[in-house]
Amino acid sequence: MLTPIRNRFLWIARIEGISFLVLLFIAMPLKYGFDWPYAVKYVGWAHGLLFVAYFAALAQIWVAEKWKFSKVFLAGTASLLPFGTFWFEKTQL
């Protein structure tokens, strides 16, 4: 059963993962391939906010569900890799 904290973490992780993929595979090619830097500016800004929200939610779930440090470290590392948050959700939750 999903607790409200776990549900919030999952949603933030999914949205953050999507924003990272949009930044890498849409905004970056628009900036460097088509000389349109505004895509990276705005998508990057949104992704940065979501990245901070992800770590805030991670800290909250760490305390609430008493996760081991290794699991928290893995979640943090997964957020740095493309598709990492989706992999973490599938394999660790």
Can you describe what's shown?
The chain is mainly alpha-helical. 84% of the residues lie in helices and 0% in strands. The protein is elongated, with a radius of gyration of 14 Å.
List keywords for this structure.
single chain; about 90 residues; mainly alpha; 4 helices; elongated
Short description:
The chain has 93 residues and is mainly α. The protein has one domain.
How many domain units? 1
Number of helices: 4
Uncertain stretches of 5 or more adjacent residues: none
What fraction, in percent, of the residue positions are helical?
over 70%
> What structural class do helix, strand and pairing data support?
mainly alpha
Series of H and E elements:
HHHH
What would the principal axes of the Cα set say about the shape?
A: elongated
How much strand? Answer: under 5%
What is the first-to-last residue Cα distance?
Answer: 11 Å
Please summarize the sheet with the most strands.
none
Task: Compute the number of strand runs.
Answer: 0
Let me know the average pLDDT: 96
Radius of gyration: 14 Å
